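Something for you to look into today, if you have time. I want to see for myself how the chain folds. Leave the record below and I will have a look.
***
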Amino acid sequence: MDTVQTLIHYLPSFFIGILVMACALTLVILGLVFVRKKVPHQKLKTHNDIAGAIFSTLGVTYAVLLAFVVVVWQSFDQAKKDVEKRGQLLG
């Protein structure tokens, strides 16, 4: 086994999750620092208004998709209950 497989096999899932989140957070912070140093402040300021509209659109899209997931999940739970009830009647 190579080192990565050994670590994944023997380390607890909680620790692996924290490790993955720490690596992702480090990459995000380094990317932010890099962009802040390379792109002038005036150029970032002009894109701020557009970014707000984009985030609003993404937020609404996420909310609608989440609502669909909740509706489908409720239908799935009801179907599961119906199947279990039918199985009890037949068995």
